[in-house]
Hints:
- This protein is an alpha/beta fold.
- The chain contains 7 helices and 7 strands, in the order ααββαβαβαβαββα.
- It has one domain.
- Helix 1 packs parallel to helix 4 (about 110-115).
- The radius of gyration is 18 Å and the shape is globular.
Amino acid sequence: xxxxxxxxxxxxxxxxxxxxxxxxxxxxxxxxxxxxxxxxxxxxxxxxxxxxxxxxxxxxxxxxxxxxxxxxxxxxxxxxxxxxxxxxxxxxxxxxxxxxxxxxxxxxxxxxxxxxxxxxxxxxxxxxxxxxxxxxxxxxxxxxxxxxxxxxxxxxxxxxxxxxxxxxxxxxxxxxxxxxxxxxxxxxxxxxxxxxxxxxxxxxxxxxxxxxxxxxxxxxxxxxxxxxxxxxxxxxxxxxxxxxxxxxx
Length: 249
């Protein structure tokens, strides 16, 4: 039963992802003016996220703290990273943003195409020139009023411990005087099967949008203090969830 259900989930997910790619492609390449073209392409990911979550009986996602988002403001969004599923469920925030993501994701079927359709910022982690170019593009987007989303761990954490945060997002926020918007993602580690395709475990994903942190009082040299402050707030939520799960068991 799990085998058949998993096969159906993957097939349906592929069709849904293909559909959003086609809709995004048509909007991006329409030969007539479309007001807010980029935002309209981005909004296709909202129904994509809704559909993928709804079709998977193994997934349950809760969203908290949406009142902390001011959609008229530009943020440097910082989120912890547990799973590829994070890319899907983060759209439940209904925010307009661009990713700063690793180039390897461009190789993922259909997902890579969606990243290109949305003009997200891609970088190669081992290439200093690529990293500098990515941050240059991120600055351009921020100054144009588009929020940028970072996973400062750099990659998915391989354990239950949150990885160390890299400095780039925090230096960028201070230099550009942009508020940091911390987002906690929890419970998604087992959302996508590792080493196979069969869904076996029901997961309860959780997104918590924390109050933004203004950077006006920080100097560039204070980036480590800002980084540790944000990581500490996200770590508190991770620790509280771990305690809650332990108590339930």
